[in-house]
C-alpha cells in the first residue's frame, strides 16, 4: 500500500462526502436504505467510516443521489478502492482497535488523559507486556506478543523524522503509583516517561492526588486532530467490548474544554518531571 494512503481516513472522507450528497438531496438515511433495499444501519456505518465501502455501494448511492458529474463519481469510486487497501496494522491480524490505529497513524496531534495507566505511545516494552497480561488474563502469549508489537510499532509516530505526532498527555498520579509488573519495571517506565517528555513535541503533565476531584474523574479519553482541515477532530473513548468515536463539533468542543481544565489543574512540565522522578526513587527503596 502506498505510504500516503490511509484506508481508515479515506473511509472517513468518503463517508463524509456521501453524507453531504445525501443531505443535498434532502433524503434521510432511512429513505436511502429503502431505495437500496438495505438496512438503515448500513447507510449510517458507511457514512461514519466504520466499515469498508465497495465501489458498487458508491455507484448505487450516486445513482440514488442523481450525481451526474462523472468526475465526481470516478473520484468517489477511487476513494472506495483506496479505502479497501490494508494499513500496516492489518499484517498483525485481527486488532480490536484497528479503527483507532488508523486514525492515530494519520493524526497530526493527540491529546490523551489517562487516570489508570501510562498511555500506549509512552509505554516501555516491558510495561506494555505486563499491562496487557494483567488486563487480559485469559489471552494466549502469542496474542499478547502481537499486541505488544503493535504498540511498539505505533510509537514510531513519536520518533518520526518528519512531522512527528504532537502528543500531550495528562496523567493521574494513580497511573504512576499502580505497580505494573514489578518495582524495577516501574522505575524503567517512569524514567522513560521523563526522557520522552524532553522531546519538543511531547508534553507530559500529572494531576496529583492532592488536587482532589477534577474534570477527568469520569475516565480515559483521547482527542485526535488531523493535518487536513477536511478531516474533523475525533474524541476516542476506549471500551471493553466496543469503542466510542465522537465526531460532532459540540461533543469535540466539550471534551476539548474539559482537557484545557485538566491541563490547567495539573502540575506544569518541570514540576511533573520532578514529581515522576521522586516516585521512581520511591520504587528504588
Automatic annotation (TrEMBL):
Pfam families: DUF5753, HTH_31. SMART domains: HTH_XRE (SM00530). CDD domains: HTH_XRE. This is Helix-turn-helix domain-containing protein. Residues 18-73 form the HTH cro/C1-type domain. It comes from Streptomyces polyasparticus. InterPro entries: Cro/C1-type_HTH (IPR001387), DUF5753 (IPR043917), Lambda_DNA-bd_dom_sf (IPR010982).
